[in-house]
Write a structure and sequence with these properties.
Length: 81
């Protein structure tokens, strides 16, 4: 289709930044309750793209990321601020 430049694609669906961080924490084996939302983190900012339908749903993408990651995702101790 002679398209050039950067393409910004998005998985189908929408999720807030806070919910995404909580879901990533849960899948990494961390406590999602420790995710602190900042102002605006609960806002749903959905992108759309005609080519985005080629991407898997977010749940599938997160599953594959944590399954195929070379990082040992496990609860870590974090120093207090």
């Amino acid at each position: 289709d002679d398209a050039t430049g950067l393409w910004h694609l998005a998985n189908p669906g929408e999720i807030s930044w806070a919910a995404l961080a909580q879901e990533a924490a849960r899948r990494a084996g961390l406590d999602p309750g420790l995710v602190r939302a900042t102002p605006g983190a609960g806002v749903r900012t959905a992108l759309t793209s005609e080519r985005g339908v080629l991407l898997p749903p977010l749940d599938s993408a997160l599953d594959r990321f944590f399954r195929d990651s070379e990082i040992a995702w496990a609860p870590m101790s974090v120093a207090a601020e």
